[in-house]
Each structure stands twice: as C-alpha cells, then as structure tokens.
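Progress note, project year one: complex with shikimate-3-phosphate.
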Amino acid sequence: MKNIVLIGPSGVGKTTIGKYISSKLKIEQVDTDFIIEKKFSMSIENIFKKYGENWFRIEESNIVKEVSNKNNIVISTGGGVVINEKNIENLKSTGILFMLVGSIDTLTRNLMNSNKKRPLIGNYGYDEIYKNVKNMFFEREKLYIKSADYLISVDNRTIEEIGEEIISFY
Ligand code: S3P
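Model obtained:
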C-alpha cells in the first residue's frame, strides 16, 4: 500500500493526525523532525542554532529520501519539506500527499499550545506568531497546493473527523 504523507504549515496538526491514522490503521508512523532530533540527540531548535537552516534542510532531505523507500506507513513531514522539489518527488514515488489546510488563526492557536519550538516562527505571543505564520504560509502556499494530491480542511473539526476523511481516500 502507498504511504500516507501529511504536508502543510506548522501548527496544522501533521504529527497529531499522523498518530491518529497510524493507531487506527495499525501502521507505522514516522515524523521527519523526530527522526532528525533522535539522530542528533538535539531539538530542532538547537539544531537550527548550532548548525543553521541550510544544514537542517540537507538532513531533512536525507531523511525524506530514506522514509520514501518504505511502504504502508504514515509520514508526518516538517512544514518546510515542500521547499525542495526533490523531496516532493521522493515522497510522491511511494505515497499519496495530503495537504492539511487551516486558517492562520487555527495555526497560531495550535502553535501557542505546542511544546515544540519553531525557530522560524518564534514564540512571542499571538500577534507575533500570527504574523510570522501568515508570511511563511503565503510564501509557500503555491508549493503546498502544487505538491498535494488532496486538500483536507482542519478548521473546526476534531482529529477523528480529519483522520477518518484521510483514511476514506486511502
Ligand atoms: C519548519 C517547520 C517545522 C520544522 C522546522 C522548520 C518550516 O516543523 O521542520 O522548524 O520550515 O516550516 P512543523 O511543521 O512541525 O512545525
């Protein structure tokens, strides 16, 4: 079976929804950011601080290539995975790409409740996060849409509703 690949901006729920699908279908979930954090025993935030974004992107591409060799898994990606066309090519070779779509307000609120630090977004309260998320989303919107096989709305829906919709396409 093809992989279920979740793409979309930070705070849209790629990790959480991936977990739901994985437990419901009893298939493995991989999260590209978690794999990088484990590999270097360091948080994404510290990796950015110590090695910089370019280095992170190279590692991210390596991990994407590795997990794209698998089948029948759920892949939760980092929000920047679409920047590199080769990543999308690799992910598409074995997977169906679902873009999770949410309002900037939803993303901001989810990020405010998240423990994971996003070095490119910061955490200085609602207004700052909203502004950064919005700018980043508009920069990448076309890439997400171009890459996605399906768009899945997350606004005002439960994790179960979103997960079940994805499973129904699969
Ligand atoms: C990034 C998103 C993050 C993480 C890194 C870079 C981005 O993942 O990969 O901080 O460029 O959008 P999330 O999508 O889980 O926030």
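The chain has one domain: 3-160.
Residues 10, 14, 33, 44, 78-80, 118-120 surround shikimate-3-phosphate (CB under 6 Å).
No further modelling is planned for this target in the current period.
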